[in-house]
């Protein structure tokens, strides 16, 4: 028997919910009802991001949307609006709150065409985040330019809310990343402690293993750090490129994203380990709610947003 929740029939299905497939030219993508995540992205049938099964728990945050903060908050504790807030510790191993509140939530299809889908979610107050946001994530494919993702948030509550967003795609050329060249157009990198919390201000990449501005073979280097001081092209975009096997997969971010997290997938399970490069657009750095760095003060009725994308070059 088909059951109904809030008047919407549900005949059952995979644990990531409905699968929204879009396509344009050689590109194809699949977006999930759970978390509005990017489950697949291919060009001419070849993967541009690490994917997961529709009925598989999402490993290592593959393709997830990170709202209202990306990365970690130390001990889940921060001060804002004259109050101390305590978030649930969603990463007990490091005693942190990680990657926001919506990556496993149910999102609703707002509209869809062959080459695009727009997803919506209303974030109500949570423990440690007593604010209300209306969220949208739009995925659009273009036969020449690949994928563009646009994230937007509007404060529909009664008080100013701290806000940031990010995303968690893993770029791939379907080769081990040790054999690939990585390019990150960033002048500074952010050191972290053994709990992955920033241990000081950003440092110049010059003369360090984190200088990837001109492209360098990754080898066995492990990276799980944020980069900033992004160098931008004439269109205002900063880039991460992964090149190997005669292919390049590239991610760009607009000016709303002054931070990029780079992660070499060392903790990815099974055959995904070091097969993709976490290339994460972020509007603010790790632990931003605690430090206040680049946190957006989203007033009632106000809007924040930004775009990023992935293409095959």
From TrEMBL:
InterPro entries: Aldose_1/G6P_1-epimerase, Gal_mutarotase_sf_dom, GH-type_carb-bd, YihR-like. It comes from the Bacteria. This is Aldose 1-epimerase family protein. It comes from Actinomadura rugatobispora.
